[in-house]
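Handout, section B. The chain below has 351 residues.
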Amino acid sequence: MTSIHDSTIGDAFARTGEFLTGNPMVRADADMRHVLDAQVELGAKSLEACLPAEARRQPTLEDAVRKVLERAGREPDDQGVDIDDIVITGPEGEISARIYRSRMMDATATPPMILYIHDGGWIVGSPEKCDATPRALAKKTGAVVVSPAYRLAPEHKFPAAHDDCYAVWLWLIEEGASLGGDPGKAAVVGEGAGANIAINISLQAHAERVAMPVHQVLIHPIAGVDMSTPSYVENMRARPIGTPTMQWFFRHLLESRAETADPRLNLVERTDFKGLPPATLVIAEIDPLRSEGELLGEALHKQGVSVDVRFYEGVTQGFFGLGSVVNKAMFAQSHVANNLVEAFAASRRKI
């Protein structure tokens, strides 16, 4: 297992400030704070203060990035990527999906494919609102990226989102060529709740002996249900996602507390990772999910899965797509893209 910490000068001063104030946000890098402050200026409420429908209308970090760029006199960059919308048949009806293709794609080669699964705690988020990461991945890897609009809770309780995304994976490996990509070289990438779904796709595909991803990218995954871990305690007041927000997500996701024992949610206690594809695991410092992400990395490594763990200090949950204004997001995107390109070059999908 490789593990890299991206540190900043002044961490000791930041931790002293946190100790004195009880506020984890004193550890945030300046460019991360600019985005978070812009989100507040746009009127964003804490999600746990909202009903789900209102929460889905709140300004996002991507909205905040646009405000930061506007202040700097810069226009948002489409990254040379075109989008199309399609419909896929799912387990309970149609699933809309957004397709990303780089305009710089080599017309003489068949590109690899990525199934990207957005964050939002299974309650909020959509391909339209979670656009930056799949756009960056399409540009940096040359892959055809598929971003599904899976069903959200509380209207559709657990495991509806998992079922939808697994159905999209099965469609991709069978029909992905219709999008001009090579389904034999397909990876999964997820953020937060989407990362939880991504690794569950690998697990279910392995169990059912269907084609697995050639690589899995797990960006600050929801990997456990224990909210007494060190990072949950430290980041009670973190923005944009603190401990109360995570509690709100699970309250709306589940029919009953008994479902927290489901191994699809409590990944850190699983013992069946052996045989899964290599993984890149991205962890953010200012995030309630940090501790369980670290535990997941250890579990994958101990069970024989090749895992590259990258720890980014000074950033929060949701940072990965902010590469146009947050330096560590740009670094993280480049590292993930490099790992994906290497996986596409070296691997065919395995059963």
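Note. Residues 15 and 116 are 34 Å apart (CA to CA). Compare this with the example in section A.
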